[in-house]
Amino acid sequence: MAASQSERDLPSALCSEFLNFSAKDTASRWLVAADLQQEVYRHLAVYVPRILCQGPSGGSSNSSREEQREELACQLLLLAPLEWLLLGEEPASGLALLQEKNQPSPLCGHVFKVGEPTYSCRECAADPTCVLCMQCFLGSVHKEHRYRMTTSGGGGFCDCGDAEAWKKGPYCQKHTPTASNRDTEEDPVAQLPADMVARGYSIFSIILKYAVDMLTWEQEDQLPAGLEPPDRGDTYYCMLFNDEVHTYEQVIYTLQKAVNCSQKEAVSFATTVDRDGRKSVRYGDFQFCEQAKSVIVRNTSRQSKPLRVEVMHSSVVAHQCFALKALSWLGQVIQYSDGLRRILCQVGLQRGPEGENSSLVDQLMLNDSKMWKGARNIYHQLLMNSLLMDLKYKKIFAIQFAKNYRRLQTDFMEDDHERVVSVTSLSVQLFTVPTMARMLMVEENLMTTIIRTFVDHLRHRDLQGRFQFDRYTAQQAFKFGRVQSLIGDLKYVLISRPSEWTDQLRLKFLEGLEAFLELLKCMQGMDPVVRQVGQHIEMEPEWEAAFTLQMKLTHIISMIQEWCSTDERVLIEAYRKCLSALSHCHSSLPDGEQPISLSLAGHCVETFRYQVSQDKVSIHLPVCRLLAGLHVLLSRTEVASRFPEQLPLGELSPPLLIELPLRCLVLCAQVHAGMWRRNGFSLINQIYYYHNVKCRVEMFDKDIIMLQAGASMMDPNHFLMIVLSRFELFHIFSSADCRKRYREANKDVVQQQNTLIEEMLHLIIMVVCERYVSGVGQVEPFDEVRREIIHQLSIRPMAHSELVKALPENGNKETGLERVIDSVASFKKPGVTGRGLYELRPEWNKHFNLYFHHYSRADQSKAEEAQRKLRRQNGEDTALPPPVPPPLCPLFASLVNLLQCDVLLAVEGAVLQWAVEPSGGGWTESMLQRVLHLVGMALLEEHQQLENSSGDDDITFSYTSKITRPGEAPSTSGSVLALLESLQNAPHLEIHKDMITWILKMVANIKTMRERSSSISTVTISQGQGKEETVRDKDKAERKRKAEMARLRREKIMAQMSEMQKHFINENKELFQQSLEELEASTSAAAENSPPSMELSCVSQVCVGPRRVGGAERRQLVTCILCQEEQEVRGHGRAMVLAAFVQRSTVLSKNRRRNLPNPEHHDPLFMHPDLSLGIHTASCGHIMHATCWQRYFEAVQLKEQRRQQRLRGHTSYDVENGEFLCPLCECLSNTVIPLLPHTHTPDHSVDHPSLEAWLKTTSQQVAALHSAHRKQIDGVAEGAGPGVPEGFRVDFIPQNPFSSSISEMITTFSMSTYKVGLKVNPNEQDQRVPVLIWSTCAYTIQSIERLLMDEEKPLFGSLPCRQDDCLSSLTRFSSACWTAATVTTTHTHFIRLLSALVPDSQVENTPCILDIDMFHLLVYCVLSYSSVHSLDQSGRSVVDSAHLHLLHLVTVAHLVQILLTSTTEEVCMDQDSVGSEEEELTCQLYNTLRKHLNSVLPEVTSGWQLFRCIKVGVLPFLRAAALFFHYLNSTAPPADLLVTGPGQWEALCSYLSLPSNLLQLYQSQHTLLEPLIHRWCCHPGVRQTLQGGGVSVRYPRESNQLIELPEDYSVLINQASSFTCPRSGGDKSRAPTLCLVCGSMLCSQSYCCQTEVDGEDVGACTAHTFTCGAGLGLFLRVRESQVLFVAGKTKGCFYPPPYLDDYGETDQGLKRGNPLHLCVDRYRKIERLWRQHGVAEVIGHAQEANQTLVAIDWQHL
Ligand SMILES: [Zn+2]
Ligand SMILES: [Zn+2]
Ligand SMILES: [Zn+2]
Ligand SMILES: [Zn+2]
Ligand SMILES: [Zn+2]
Ligand SMILES: [Zn+2]
Ligand SMILES: [Zn+2]
Fold this sequence. Notes:
Layout: H1 2-7, H2 10-20, H3 23-32, H4 36-52, H5 64-87, H6 91-101, E1 114-121, H7 134-138, E2 147-153, H8 194-215, E3 236-241, H9 248-258, H10 263-276, E4 278-284, H11 286-300, E5 309-313, H12 314-333, H13 338-349, H14 360-366, H15 373-385, H16 391-403, H17 405-414, H18 427-431, H19 434-444, H20 446-457, H21 474-483, H22 485-494, H23 503-523, H24 544-565, H25 568-586, E6 595-600, E7 603-608, H26 622-636, H27 639-642, H28 654-672, H29 680-691, H30 700-712, H31 716-726, H32 730-734, H33 747-769, H34 781-795, H35 800-806, H36 817-824, E8 825-828, E9 837-840, H37 857-873, H38 902-916, H39 925-948, H40 959-964, H41 976-984, H42 993-1012, H43 1021-1027, H44 1029-1062, H45 1065-1073, H46 1083-1089, E10 1117-1119, E11 1126-1128, E12 1136-1145, E13 1174-1185, H47 1186-1207, E14 1220-1221, E15 1228-1229, E16 1231-1234, H48 1251-1274, H49 1300-1318, H50 1329-1350, H51 1361-1376, H52 1383-1397, H53 1414-1429, H54 1439-1462, H55 1477-1493, H56 1503-1529, H57 1544-1551, H58 1559-1564, H59 1566-1578, H60 1580-1587, H61 1609-1617, E17 1632-1635, E18 1641-1643, E19 1651-1653, ...
Antiparallel strand pairs: 1-2, 3-4, 3-5, 6-7, 8-9, 10-11, 12-13, 12-16, 14-15, 17-18, 17-21, 19-20, 21-22, 22-23, 24-25
One zinc ion (ZN) binds next to loops.
């Protein structure tokens, strides 16, 4: 690529141009030019290609420096002259002046970025598309309202200040109109100086035209006239365009091949193409580019149409680039002045010479689908900043938009880009303004246009002209997906109904309705089904498309009804139109059918032959259903009663009206009865959606209403006979012996019929009883919602979101739930887990209707069970009688007659008659229950009428008298009442007894009422019930006795069970499966288990040194969880092991920037005080034989191998890394700790040497070892070495005190710690093996000490036993692990460790005391000393003396360490007060240190402050030491440490055998310690650290916490929305993710931020865990509101976020949009999980429980 080389230095060539160029001069030259456009074009022709044509980067450069240079050149050479020309003065001051004089309209107009939070008020927003930006929201009244929070998908703007968008509070504080705001009617152009206006017009038109020409330019090699570059080279770009067909991977792969780039470059190209819509992938001469093009085309054309690639001349690309910059510039300039904005609007919308649709904006819109993404985004943004912000031009633009609507939509349909980058998506900005929508409807006939466009795009029809979706191709499905956005536009137009109607509006709306009816007619009867008999259907027919359409239209249909309801004339006209559409659909209905005549119970009706089970039937009946909706409106608005003459009610044929809905309902019943099994799942899904909350409002519900409407216009007997006939049940009830169900030979048929009878009875119940639709019954919408909620809550208490899901939403996504919920339910707050629940208040139980129409069968039986249980608990009878229904509206009033008509009585009689026979097989319980319900309803109705009537005359209902009459011909048996009486005591009907009793009581009541009705008073039920009181009491008592007996029996069984469980492993299982939460709660368990508390004595306890109280000689008996055998823990016995989990940890880290150590060369002997990486060991406390465990683990391995061969899946644990699940509690483990016996009580007869004496002996021993080692290495026998203490034998090889099985386990655990801790392969010979074990011992104790401290728990006795066991075996194990290593190794470690305290010239590289964690040092020293001591065969010293002296030495060193790091600033204290002894000693020590360090330390006068520092600083060390020695020596802790409170310090000191004034340690050994302290201070490291300000750790080290989170979740969203990907230059990150440990924001789940870790590309989160959490991470995915746990590369899980809405629910995925607030308790819970090192285990459990989690590629997050 020769070209690029020379182009490189172009920018510097430009530099000279910069210097010589004057924007001002250029502008003044232009000002006087005759043809301004020509001048400007000439300028652009010269400069644009020179600035923006810079080689390979191709306009959108990669390097940001180049980009900056380009930007600067554009500004100085191209834009500045324009600004001078426009403003007539220096641009900066000119613009400032403009802005100052500007009187802006009070519109916010903030354009949303992707992921930015938006707010909408559920109470005040005109529709859900009205949103506020965060700033406006916070300054608005809606903050206090019920609001919804969502994240923007990008595009769209803040509606603050738009009075039409808000019912209340349209302005925030900032945008409240003030006096300085311009009146919206005033012309803002008038405020600008006239000459500027003139210049503005000409500049804007030149630039806008230039930009439009360039963006719509289609030639690749030519430029528009006047722009040809003076010197044209052979330089081309190979431009790759975006499409939505090819995947990222395909593009990347192709590019690597075509342009020979690296994968990284290809990824970057692909990312840019995806973002901007195009990207040049090659620069060079024409041939060179053409070649790349052909490779790309060839490679991508195989499966689909090829990627679009064009070879474009560099000057064309440069001008297109500048065109975009010019558009952005225009957008910026008009921000300064509303006047300029209007000028731009005028320029943009001015008609060109070509007339219609020739304005510049029209040209842009009409070419939208041809432009690339980046260009579209920029001009859309300009439209939003200009036209949409100017109310006058917004209207004009809207009209243009509406005029072009059909064309734009068609273009969009052909285009393959997402809708957000299509100009059609602007419809939301235009159509949702109610006045605008109305105007467009009236003037541009928008409603009709949208609907017609929509219908035109759905071309697939059947012979009858109906939509046909069942054989849809993928291409058609794709189109269908796109065409749906039109429905969205229609929704915007209809979303707010008009408060006032004009004749024009009526006309246009009805025209639209007519178009809509045409659409519905295409749907009526679509996708018909025919019952499949014999064979199963071969192919499941496609059904989803039809239902998608139905679902999308549901809101539209509802909204059209709402519009109709606001105007009587419209309603009447709409009803007429709908009816005529329906009769059109019906025209073919009874054709060719011979009428048949049915007769039953003395009634006769004509109908025609049709069977659902044999003929075609369709679920889609939108025309019928719309008519049903309008019919209800006629009733609700009382139009029907006021203008009966205008309604074509006479044209209605009720049997025809009910025909299709009835067929549909019968179809459901038959499917239920199993008659359609061979039709497959497609039908089952359709039936499901028919009833589903998303569709039912305009499907199932309307069908019921249509039946109600029909039935109310018909003779009830006729209605029922048609129903019976359509259910194909007529013959059963009509035959002469109907009361004795004839025996069907076929059992299946009987069963089917039974179900059908049940379904039919249910349907009758619904037709009569469902009155909670305003217009059917006399109710308000409020009652309807309340009834839904009552019935949902009758099933069980529910969370808010569950209730929302169960209720249908309206166009505003409101269910009305909030208005009602508090009146019927009480709210129970959630705890740390679970969610808040609403519980139905008991007083609402009486409204429960078992046959509530929205219950599924499952819901119904659950609700029934719950209600019966409730009644039993309250000691009530279990009858569930129908509730009292609301009265019907007059139009539906005759419905009640169904209940008492002869046909129904005949049916009831028949079923009751069947029920007399216990095992007839011809009836079912449900059937009987439904009949009883119907009887109950009839009785209630009669009772109501009696109660409400003043006399006997207006009572039309006489059910009681009818059921007393014996059955009429043809049946001859007894009356319904008689049957009921005889059934009352039938033993096989025990469950129904209560209900029958209730019915009989009702009958008696009504009789009494009728008898009394001559007199005035009426009797109510409750009074009537009073008489039965005694019967009831008796009943109650009996029930109670039975309940009591049942309880006793239950208790007995429980007792037996628990007895048995004691012997069962499963009991333990449950016990230990308790999650980590209970760690803190199990104090009592631990207290029982830890022996110390029981043997408390008044003798002061000492845990270290020769005075220590003996670790118990107790025998330890443990049980193996695998074989259940008991075993004593002995050094020579069979090894017992504890399942354990070892992991790296950074929980205590004070320095997260430290790099992970190099595993091969890391020297872990000295732990740095920043504790940046530790090894933590945990255990579930379950003990096994080593052999049992080995066998178990081998089995696990084997199983895993087999499984991998079979299905290559993952497991939640990694067997190859030694992971397994505890066989009992399934706790994640990766090793085992062997159990070792307690240490023996020290031999008190041996003398305790003084510190001085001990130091002397030890130095001699060390010296002896030194020389021995040297001898070994050099082979040189030195003469008399240093004096070897008596009895000390350097060549002694101590006997291994452990059996081989224990030794083996010691190696096992050692290797695990080594492997995990250093991330290396096992190597038993490595000298670092013992160090890592000591390290995990120290680190684990330290982390537990911190937890106990921060949770204010006592040091001892509060740990759960599993942790207690773990620490105790870990510590004892650590003290013995040296036996597995070579003796010299341990000696060397001890010598090096000791040299940190007692400097030793023979040891090199000893760190200074500021760089050592003293607790780790103590633990290492104590644990390594045993190996040295084992060589001392004199028997004159005990190991305990050494421990004590080491403790003292380390403590003093720690005190010095604390003092050195304690102060930086002096706090002036009261100088007068006389310090205590402690304070004085502290001062003394401090001054000694200052002396040694020559005042590197500041002067401190206050001993009090220093002493306080010491006391606080040393406490964690002492506590950790106490824990350590407690577990090492099994010494019982003193009583004071088993509780929290005063006296801790003294108890601690005495337990550790330390003086309570710690300074005495130093004071009493002054002469001995002084030189040591001097040498500590003289270590060069100390001075370096102190002077360099490098003190990173001060004492006490503060405990780490998770980062602080904001209370309001939207703050986080806002933060995340401004977060840009750190790698791809200012791009918004798609999945911003917050590290909860360190607070870093990451660009997760994205190609751009993948990093290579150990040779594998991983996502930003996984990569981050390796630097921040040693492989373990806790994150918050901000857009999803989800906590993410990651461990290693393959494991992870999601965890509920600590944010809850007001209903106590999380919103994972941010779907509901309720405001979220931080729940501190839940966040603390996550924090505790982290600090307890429990995250890995939570992941393990989650993956075990949910296998889909295992398959997720966690490393890519
Ligand atoms: Zn705003
Ligand atoms: Zn505002
Ligand atoms: Zn509000
Ligand atoms: Zn065992
Ligand atoms: Zn376990
Ligand atoms: Zn982090
Ligand atoms: Zn990124």
